[in-house]
From TrEMBL:
Keywords of the record: FAD, Flavoprotein, Oxidoreductase
Name of the protein described by the UniProt record: Acyl-CoA dehydrogenase family protein
Cofactor names: FAD
Organism: Amycolatopsis acididurans
Protein family membership: Belongs to the acyl-CoA dehydrogenase family.
Length: 376
């Protein structure tokens, strides 16, 4: 696939127009530790969040479409990391409900997710557990028809502002996902950390939290299947966000270089700068092509094409890091100005290589798959 189908180009135009419309509040929102209320209000009014839930619950598509999500995140990340995260987490935090929740739970929550009336969160990592999720210590046990959750989750996106958490916990010899409303007694949130690109982030403690047995998502002990399904659907959208961010950084650098004269010539024609700009453009187009291909494949068969989504995520986020760094260098001191868009893009680019699967962890997994395939 070398060109987006018309249905997706129409969505792309819609997303770009909306992203441009919130440019006036992007800087403020991107510096916030909490969800920006005005950004939320405008995003809810746009109706775009409906792409994150199935049509049966108010969504635009029969099921969540990875290519649609990727195209929108590309447009959003070019303007605001806060906007991109707000959209992305609605899907990441609720997808397990879409595919594993009971009908009553889906009917209650998913329409609210699609209208941005309920903020979603996925609680996986813990203070001592990052990529090695099988080492987690949060537990869930069924007692007297209820599920009792105990544990401590850390670095959770939307913590404090979320209306519910999809919590991965150990249950017997397996791992289960449990839906925990944020208002449930025993749920508490602290915010001990903040990252270089300010983010809605916190730790969530579950102290003898009791929820109905109906709040288990999927079968007991099968939580990892739902987590993997979530990654298979949404990991490639991180690549889309990285492409959008890189494109925005390149545009900033080109505008600066074309409008500035040094040593009697345009900066865009001076020394190594033309090559830096051209290489950035080339790498972005390569990353975009792989990203769209992977997203289209994920839309057809998420788990069957997880390797492509993983390649796209690694490739695009590494490209974004290189492009933003080159863009800062091209702009010189103007690329270092505090509060400028380039500073925001530079800070947003770095975490992309860590969350939703770090580069090293993904490459290790891909290498194992590659070797296994060659030795069959």
């Amino acid at each position: 696939m070398f060109e987006l189908p018309e249905a997706y180009t129409a969505l792309q135009r819609e997303a770009r127009e909306f992203a441009a419309s919130v440019r006036d509040i992007a800087e403020r929102a991107d510096e916030g530790d909490d969800i920006d209320p005005e950004m939320r209000k405008r995003l809810a009014a746009s109706g775009i969040v409906s792409i994150m839930v199935p049509a049966a619950y108010g969504g635009r598509y029969e099921r969540v479409d990875s290519l649609a999500v990727t195209v929108v995140r590309e447009a959003f990340a070019a303007e605001s990391g806060h906007l991109d995260s707000m959209l992305g987490m609605q899907g990441i935090g609720s997808y397990a409900i879409s595919v594993g929740g009971s009908e009553s739970v889906r009917a209650e929550l998913l329409p609210q997710v699609g209208r941005l009336e309920a903020i979603a969160a996925l609680a996986l990592t813990e203070p001592g557990v990052g990529s090695d999720l099988k080492a987690l210590t949060t537990s869930v046990a069924e007692r007297d028809g209820e599920l009792v959750v105990n544990g401590h989750k850390s670095f959770i996106t939307n913590a404090g502002d979320a209306d519910f958490y999809s919590v991965l916990a150990r249950e017997g010899e397996g791992y289960s996902l449990v839906l925990v409303p944020a208002s449930t007694p025993g749920v508490s949130v602290t915010k001990p950390h903040q990252i270089i690109a300010p983010h809605v982030l916190g730790d969530v403690v579950f102290d003898d939290v009791r929820v109905p047995a109906d709040n288990r998502l999927g079968e007991p002990g099968q939580g990892f299947k739902l987590v993997l399904a979530t990654l298979a659907t949404f990991r490639v959208s991180v690549a889309g966000a990285a492409v959008g961010l890189a494109q925005s950084a390149l545009q900033e650098a080109v505008r600066h270089a074309a409008g500035r004269e040094q040593f009697g010539v345009s900066l865009a024609r001076l020394g190594s700068i033309p090559g830096d700009l051209a290489m950035a453009w080339t790498e972005i187009e390569m990353a975009r092509t792989l990203t769209y291909r992977a997203a289209a494949a994920a839309a057809r068969d998420p788990l069957g094409n997880l390797h492509l989504s993983s390649m796209a995520k690694v490739g695009a986020t590494e490209v974004a890091a290189r492009v933003v760094d080159r863009a800062v260098q091209v702009m010189g001191r103007f690329g270092l100005v505090r509060g400028g868009k380039m500073e925001r893009l530079y800070r947003e680019a770095r975490p992309m290589r860590v969350y939703e699967g770090s580069t090293e962890v993904i490459l290790d997994s891909l290498a194992k798959q590659l070797v296994k395939g060659l030795t069959r």
